[in-house]
Specification:
3 strands, alpha+beta, 3-stranded antiparallel β-sheet, globular
Amino acid sequence: MNPVIRAQLRDFAKANSITAYTQEKQFEIYSIFSILNGLLGESVDAYNVHLEGDEFGVDGIAVVIQGESVNSRQEAEDKLATINNPRLSSSSFKLKQALATTMATSQSFLTRCQDSLMGV
C-alpha cells in the first residue's frame, strides 16, 4: 500500500474507532468514505454502507436520497413521500488494495452486478 494512503488510513481508523478491524476492512470503509463524502460530497456514514463478509462480492451499497443514506424500503418510501422532485443516487463498491486488477476480475464483478439487478 502506498505510504501516504497507509498514513491516511491509520488516521481515519483512529478517528473512527475501527482500529480493531483488519487493514482490509479498514481500507474498504475508508475508501467508501472517501468516495461518498469526498468525491460525491454526500454526508453518509461509510460504516453503514459497508457490507460484512464477502459472500456477495460487493463491499458496500449505498442508496442516497436528498444526501442521506436509506437502509430499508420503508425508510426510502417515507422519505420519497414528502419530496416532489427528489435527488436520488445509488453506489456499489468493490474495493481492492492490489496494485493492478485484471480485465477478467472487473468483467466478473460487472456481470454479477448486472445479474443481481436483472434478478438472475
